Amino acid sequence: MTGNEAVAAGVKLSNVKVIAAYPITPQTTIVEKLAEMVANGELNSKFIEVESEHSAMSAVTASEMTGVRSFTASSSHGLLYMHEALHWAAGMRLPLVMTVVNRAIGPPWSIWGEHTDSFNQKDTGWLQMYCETNQEAMDSILLGYKIAENNKLLLPVMNMLDAFTLSHTSEPVEVRSHSTAADYLGELELESKMDFNNPAGYGSIVPPDGPFMEMKKDMRDSMYNATNAIKKEITTFNDLFNAELPGLTENFMMEDADYALITLGAISSTAKYTIRKLRERGQKVGLIRLYFYRPFPGEEIVKAVKGLKGLGVVERNLSFGQRGPTFEDVATALYGRVDVPMRNYVVGLGGRDVRVKDYELMFENLVEGNNEIEWVNVEAR
Amino acid sequence: MYEIRFHGRGGQGAVTASKILATAAFLESKWVTSFPFFGTERRGAPVTAFTRVDDQRIELRSQIYEPDAVIILDKSLMNGVNVTEGLKNDGIIVVNGKRGNLKEAGKYRVASVDATSIALRNGLGDPSHPIVNTAILGAFAKISNLVSLQSIKNATSDTVPSRKKENVNAIQEAFEETELN
Fold it and tell me: Which residues of A231-256 are buried (b: 16+ CB within 10 A; e: fewer)?
């Protein structure tokens, strides 16, 4: 099945009760599939058609507030249009799950993949997971609800799939057992939810000496301290479903590596393919893949990079006027703890293919290069 | 790993063809990936789709630059698109149409079949928009032993939403009528 079909199957497995979405390429086939499941009775959910992405996020925020498991999906400009509502969902401590099929932001217009849309949301209070395979795309929905609904966390989860590279690519996926999934997630039971018999106001004004800062600190602490709970949930998930989810990060051929790259998402697969080839030629190279981006897996990276002669951070997104956001976050994690020469590579914007020879070039550059940021597979102008 | 690149035009079913072929190999216990290069989709525009088949999990996710086979659903594409770009020296070409003046014919193994007539004969599409994707796979089965003809038929029945019997017939007829150089 395709990545988008895998997501829809994951939503079905999660027994989601409300789906609200507005179509946008390349996410559309997720909610098309879900609408079909609802229409033919395969999925017992309420499907709310809305007039915009802002409304989609507002609708699932409201339904989740009543204690009902809810889902939406978006991409690119649609996700940007949701931005304000994303802060509301997280601030209300609602355990929503949303899939983002990563697509470039115009202008110029592009329907193809890059991560800038979800990177622009990394500070909204949502957890962020980047999937590498269609199996992960399905599993991450179930895992996402499990983590989000943890009473110590209660924050929404954003699952990312690279446009087309996963969303429209078919590959073998094992559909998890419905009964196991139902037992695993159970029914959503929010301690605090909207009660129609006791009407109340939500999200109203708090003065500067009210609990505003305290609430934000609690949100930040909850996410920051969630890493152990997440790792535990991943282990439980793998045991229960005989699955192969990595930890917060995946270390690939890192044990004796001299040089390594950091990647996110589906472009990591081609990096692994390249690393196997380079290993055959005797090069000690490896990869750290960030499955979770929020909370940021700083401790995992610190452990993995010790002893490296060079670390390249691969960025499929962009921040203007500064190096890439992943580079900044990795540098922050390593600051004062590990001293590794670092470089930043920008790849795959606007759907540009990320090829074996691009990774070969990055590893070459890691040994010999001296620019602080390198653009890969870009025409010189 | 075996890599196949499909060249077609929007509406001919190249993306579905790549999926059917992948499904056929999956039915034979192979690991597969199938993916399109999406342009701004519209009828008649050139479309590329890809299938990879391997005995183990496929990690490579880039487009296919050095295919083992190219499958051309519309011969007129060959005027504007370099459909054999990167094709391996021992690669194969499957083309909808007469081999005729195909300049690549001398260099590569070629399977040619009039998939358009076969499709129309079986009620697949209409004369202005024949859906040739299943017929062309019959020709692929004739020239390649990557997957069996029966697996392609089974995968087609699993994949196409309607006219299953007609599509399976088209595959059989194409298999019988394919000319090899």
Answer: eebbeebbeebebebbbbbbbbbbee
Report residue A165 as tokens.
């590279």
Round to whole Å and give the CA distance between A21 and A273: 36
* Token pair belonging to A159: 């699952």
Confirm or reject contact between A273 and chain B (CB < 8 A).
Answer: yes
CATH code, domain with B82:
3.40.920.10
What is the ipTM metric for this complex?
A: 0.94
Percent of chain B whose predicted confidence (pLDDT) is above 70: 94
What's A153's domain CATH number? 3.40.50.970
- Residue that has been written with the tokens 């790849």 in this structure: A347
Q: What are the E-state strand segments in A86-218?
A: 97-102, 127-130, 157-162
Task: Please give the interface size between A and B, counted as residue pairs whose CB atoms are below 8 Å apart.
Answer: 53
Predicted pLDDT at B10? 87
What is the phi-psi region of residue B64: left when phi exceeds 0, alpha when psi lies from -120 to 50, beta otherwise?
beta
In A, which residues are within 8 Å of B65 by CB distance?
A: 355
Q: pTM score, two decimals?
A: 0.96
Distance from the Cα of A353 to chain B's closest Cα (Å) equals 6
Let me know if residue A57 belongs to a domain: yes
pLDDT band at A59, cuts 50/70/90? Answer: very high
A274 burial class (0-12, 13-18, 19+ CB within 10 angstroms)?
buried
The number of distinct structural domains making up chain A is 2
Residues of A in contact with B40 (CB under 8 A): 111
**Domain range holding B162?**
2-180
